[in-house]
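Memo to structure team: turn this sequence into structure tokens by end of day. - J.P.
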Amino acid sequence: MQAHYWGDKITFSYEESVKVTDALKERLQGIRESVSDELGELSPLINRLDCEMEALRSESNEQTTAEFVGRIQSLSFTCNELVVKFTAEIMERATAICGTPPCQFCAVAIGSMARGETTPYSDLEFFFLIQNTDSMTYFRRLAMSAYFIIGNLGETKLKYMNIEELNRNGKWFDDMSVSGFKIDGLQKEAGNIPTGNGSEEHRDKFIQTVSGMVDTYRRILLNPDTEASKKGDLSAMLSSTVLIYGNKQLHREFVSQVAAIEPSDSRRQTSLEMLQSDMKKFDYLPDRTMTHIKDIKKDFYRFPSIVIFDLKILHHVSSSSVWDTLDTLMSMGILSPTTAQALRAALSISIYARLSAYCYHSSQDDRMTILEPMNSQRLKTAPWFFPRKLLIHYFLHTSPLKLLNLSHFAVVVSSSLMLDRTMLIWTLYHCEAYEKVVANMGGWTRGEYSMLPTVFVDSLIEINDLDGASELIAEMLREERSDDIIAVLTERMGTVCFERSDYKSALDCYQKSLNMRLKIYGDSPHPDIAGSYSNIGNVYQSQVDYESALDCYQKSLNMRLEIYGDSAQHHIAASYNNIGNVYQSQDDYKSALDFYQKSLNMQLKIYGDLAHP
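Reply from structure team:
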């Protein structure tokens, strides 16, 4: 195939090609074995982690975590350096095949290799910087020569080459082949390689002079496509590069000129939106489906890595390596030392998990499980086992960051109780201890933090895990808490009883909660007191004691009107609706209609033309 492509330009024999390929395979396997051996040596360190509640933030754990981070950072650096040298060897071989370059050039990596996070199984994303554009044909051939050498390693699935003749109704002939070290691919969504993804639009977009590539970067940075930027556009990729092979000066000029270009205000705003979006979308915590498989790259690895990368773009940090970026963000005052430490620990654990899964499967296979293996002899077709201790400490360091989107995070966490209830409680408690971290990242008030436990309970009630909610409330009440939080938790226990139709117990809990709040707040109108009256009214309504229900609902409404006045407020709308329900149950349809109409009018003021339940 190579001979057919090159025709009379070919400068190597089949035997020589086989010899080179075998040597490269041996070199790559050596890198993988070295990485795998170092990962294995980390097991005793991981086993030293203490996951007892009182020990989670202990000095011993802090020291063990710091040692683990140091070892992973060193391993990550070594692995990245070895893979860069391996890739340079491929480029040197490709250059030897194509002959003396017509001008100075260099091959430059982007993606995980540029960020210092590559693995011996990662895709290769790179571009050429060339001195002039007079010899584009040579550099296209150089790129293709490198593709062939990499393809000969036998770890490039046919679909990545996008050869449609080998595709039958979406089924490729080699779907069962191993996916390992390969080029980024020629699919539409890929193509971060010199010749692009094969389309005319992307032809040679990664073979440019320094000025040409810098102009491309500047154009996108100053006039961003908002949607493309949120997904990670070319300017984001070009902000992190590392030299693979060739002229160092060309790369230095490119890096220097890119660092000098300040992003536009619109690009900064887009970067901020990208950060906010990425903070919300990673559901990495265990859920009901995690009894079998999770995807490390999608659900674990990318969260800390992308958060750091988003912050880099947002604050125009010139550092390339993810580790250097963290140090720079801390020195700039963007991240506190505590937050940087949490991100560094989370990043280390995610890199460990990704490297371990790839080495375990001997391919780009991200499947993992948190279920302990039945025996030590595991089938290679089984997912990699994520050590439970390490997983808990991953939650320890990432939970405060995820709490920037609390409601989403709480639902994800709460469903994990089906697998291990204590894991939620661990996560909950250390999140409270991490107040300063979250305050640094997004600004949480102490009041919002004090309400954190009830958010988890509410999530359990919402998904109808009443047993889980009851157990969690009981666990929380065993700890020393302020009177207002005890009142909230007692109220939530009443809600659990109410959902079970245990109205007597529900009324008892609601009344206790009300009495505590009256003692705390006295005669002053307070939203929590109004809420208590409303909850008690719900119980009386369910017991068909309409007179008592109406009395409680009216007290709740009067207090809410006193608190909020004439402003449109959804609690007031709910009170109107509750009173309407009582009148409807009493067949007083005229009064019911009056209160339903008041509720509707207020909700229309609140939500306008928006569709809302």
